[in-house]
Amino acid sequence: MQVVAEHITKLLNGDEDGPKVRAQERSMNRFVGCCPDEVFETYVKEKKTVGQKRKRQHDHQAANGESAAETNMEKRYPKGHLPPAPFTLTCEEKKQADARLSSMHFPVGFGDVPGSLFTHIRGGVKSHTWNRLFTNGVLRYCLRGMLGTEQRESLNNFLMGLETLFKSPSDLNTNDQVAEGWHVTLCRMERDFPLSLQSFVMHLLHHLPSYVKLYGPPSNFWMFPYERFIKTLSECITNSRYPELNVVKKMETQWLVNMLDIAGFLEPLRSRPEPQQTGLRYLEQGAYRPKPQPVNELERKALARLFGIPALTNQCITVFHYAKRHLGGSEVQYRDSSVEDPNQREKACMVACDLPQGQFVGVVKYFFSCVMNTDTHELVFMEWIGKPEQCSDSKCFKVQRTLRPPPPLTWVSQLSAPLIYAWDKEVLWIPMM
Question: 238, exposed or middle or buried, with CB in 10 Å at 0-12, 13-18, 19+?
Fold first, then answer.
């Protein structure tokens, strides 16, 4: 995945585009208008074998009396003089795409996102980060409205196909339909982008649906756990003379410690955790302790409307700032907006929720628990923004502020996972719901 992602990104920003690529495409009657005649004549028509080239240089040197250094100089065409191509970004588009990437906010645990991806690729981007960028709609948002129409449509279909496959549909019939559309998508990528992109790794993506059908989600057979385990093994080596024996002894010790921990023998050695409120499933203490406080007028009316009872009196709630849930086999963390820095890039307060009025997107103001008829309820106070609408071009979702928001209270169990989002001209953009 990292190889494919890097090649596509480098082609978009022009690193893997040049006169030779344009000339080769024109020789196959592809993107003819993107290759000037001078480039085509230099890199295709005048192309010779090594023996023919040496003979021509020798004859030219003998006829004109030029030095070998002057004769061996190849004729080159400046890369910056090439006309714009529909499969590459212009300088202004690269700056705009990087600005959109910098304005995005990501949930906790998403990974380290580089500040620049198109003006220049910074080294050290991990394969896990490339995977998240290409399978969570980030690239679709950054390239919104850019490239040629066919190239943009093919790339969006390619990225959405990756998102679907990494969701790994369990229905075999759905998987077969996805596989058929996936092959068509890869063929369109071959049609609308230079053939230099069609490496062996790109061809292997044709087999991804069959692997998903055989082995389940890509997380079942990708290499990230093995790479992390190799790092753990390398850190165990403290004796360069007998590294294998050193690793085995260290892992035996680690295994023994894990068994003692599972059996509960290490519990007395740990510091006793602070007592938490009983009966809670999602709300957590975190860095800020829960704070009991009386219900204000707005909360009182919202509680009465949520539970369908008369207005409460003398009701007390406990305010939390953190929550945690298990969704789709993974753990997601929430933070309310009061404990997050406005300039912080990692945010976990933007969520979606299915309400009787429809699906709404909003910001978590705070969590709280309250006791009603001896039952403890875990609720969240929201600031609703509006309903998401899908953009026909990029397939991202845009949310505009509504004049009639729904009631602010809902259950924590109804919240979606924290969303990736960005603000652009008073419009909230969400790459993937």
Answer: exposed
Give the pair of three-digit tokens for residue 310: 């008369």
Which 8-state DSSP code applies to residue 219? Answer: G
- Answer whether residue 379 is part of any domain: yes
Judge whether 271 lies within some domain: no
Six-digit token string for 421:
């989002």
Best CA proximity match to 295, nearest among 191, 369, 186: 369
Q: What is the pLDDT of residues 250-286, one digit of tens each?
A: 888 888 888 888 887 776 665 555 555 556 889 988 8
Domain span at residue 360 reads 349-430
Specify the number of domains making up the chain.
2
Paired residues of 375 in beta bridges = 372
In the three-class reduction of DSSP (H, G, I as helix; E, B as strand; rest coil), residue 196 is classed as helix
Cα Rg of the chain, angstroms: 29
Give the span between the Cα atoms of 198 and 190, in whole angstroms.
7
Q: What kind and span of H or E run contains 371?
A: strand 358-372
* Predicted TM-score (pTM) of this structure: 0.81
* Domain end point (choices 182, 212, 242): 212
Cα 405 to chain centroid, rounded:
30
Q: What is the pLDDT of residues 176-190, one digit of tens each?
A: 788 888 999 999 999
